Amino acid sequence: MVDTVSGIQEFASATRRHIDLSVRVMGGSPPRVQVRNRFSETLSETVTCSADGAFVTSWGYRLGTVESVQDAADRLAYLMAALPA
Predict the structure, then answer these.
(1) What is the pLDDT of residues 4-45, one digit of tens each?
(2) Which run of H or of E encompasses 77?
């Protein structure tokens, strides 16, 4: 079982490396990250971390796992048309 809160915190930190994205960690159950493209009114996404360590979008797309957090964050940034810092 994975510590989903730590997973979300790591994911948020990795996602913040993309300058076009605004990242907000939300508490609650499950913990989640709300991400939006700063230059778009429509490009936004909510990501959770499952008990098995997978980062999953609100529409069910699996971005990656806690073993490769940066890769998962990069995948989300690509989907949201964001540039790396």
Answers:
(1) 999 999 999 999 999 999 999 998 888 999 999 999 989 999
(2) helix 69-79
